[in-house]
Amino acid sequence: MNAPTRLEASPAEKAKVLLDALPYIQRFNGKTIVIKYGGHAMVDDDLQESFARDIVLLKYTGMNPVVVHGGGPQIGNMLDKLGIQSSFVRGMRVTDAATMEVVEMVLVGQVNKAIVRMINQHGGRAVGLSGKDGSLLRARRMHEAGTAEDIGLVGVVEKVDAGVIDTLDRGGYIPVIAPIGVDAEGNTYNINADLVAAHVAAALKAEKLVLLTDVDGIRGAEGTVLPSIDAKAARVLIERDVISGGMIPKVECCLDALAGGVAKTHIVDGRVQHALLLEIFTSEGVGTQVVGRA
């Protein structure tokens, strides 16, 4: 049996793709784009390569990408290897001192360094950070911030030192941030990466916050993916339980970022190769855009 023929774009078609992207390149030149990197895109080899190339391309087209990454599966695997049991409350990992050591080791020492290396291999100049570096992420214990249950060393963001990131941006570097925070006494906290990304985007007054996820976007009451939704409509869907489960905190992160001054937010299907480029450089996108007003 003959192998299927691979269709190649003609030179004219390739030129059209570049020309179609030109208005977006012009519009977002010099703008900050905060990307939360997580889900399947972090563990699939092809998607990892796709993501790294996307980030480098954004930088070379004049944008300032800032990456905030998760690492839940990698943390879980290491805890299993070490025989440390995990439990969760409302999707958040209960984090005692021993678990916190593993979380920091995996996120900062393994996952962060792997992302930096991958971006640099594709021609970028990435620099890895945790919230401890330059007191980038000042945090406090979530339980002390008003939650009903004490789930240990899980934190919320109190303040982001945007100056650390601005300095790297001006130097032509790509910041890659692990979601580890520190309080005034030097205590370390595990923080949800979506939450960190939203706070970083707000502190930088970013043009966009993009959450790469394992879903194809926000679905409406009819079950179809909504290409765009405003903040008021999103809150209605949450109240009516149309937006539910794990999608609620992601949408709420988008709403918080918008309230903090971010121009637009996006929940994007990270299982699609080059999802980031498709969302930024095309009118169709591959997820749902969440905006302040319709």
Which descriptors apply to this entry?
9 helices; 14 strands; globular; alpha/beta; about 290 residues; single chain; eight-stranded mixed β-sheet; two-stranded antiparallel sheet; about 40% helix
Report a brief summary of the structure.
The chain has helices at 11-28, 45-60, 72-81, 97-121, 162-170, 193-204, 231-239, 247-259, 275-281, and strands at residues 32-37, 64-69, 88-89, 92-93, 126-130, 137-141, 155-160, 174-178, 180-182, 188-190, 208-213, 228-230, 264-269, 287-291. By secondary structure, it is of the alpha/beta class.
What would you note in describing this structure?
The protein is an alpha/beta fold. It contains 9 helices and 14 strands. It has helices spanning 11-28, 45-60, 72-81, 97-121, 162-170, 193-204, 231-239, 247-259, 275-281; strands spanning 32-37, 64-69, 88-89, 92-93, 126-130, 137-141, 155-160, 174-178, 180-182, 188-190, 208-213, 228-230, 264-269, 287-291. The strands form 4 sheets. Strands 5-8-2-1-11-13-14-12 form an 8-stranded mixed sheet, with helices on both faces. Helix 2 packs across helix 4, helix 3 (72-81) crosses helix 4 and helix 6 (193-204) runs parallel beside helix 8 (247-259). 42% of the residues are buried.
Task: List the topology elements.
Elements lengths: L10 H18 L3 E6 L7 H16 L3 E6 L2 H10 L6 E2 L2 E2 L3 H25 L4 E5 L6 E5 L13 E6 L1 H9 L3 E5 L1 E3 L5 E3 L2 H12 L3 E6 L14 E3 H9 L7 H13 L4 E6 L5 H7 L5 E5 L3
Parallel strand pairs: 1-2, 1-11, 2-8, 5-8, 11-13, 12-14
Antiparallel strand pairs: 3-4, 6-7, 9-10, 13-14
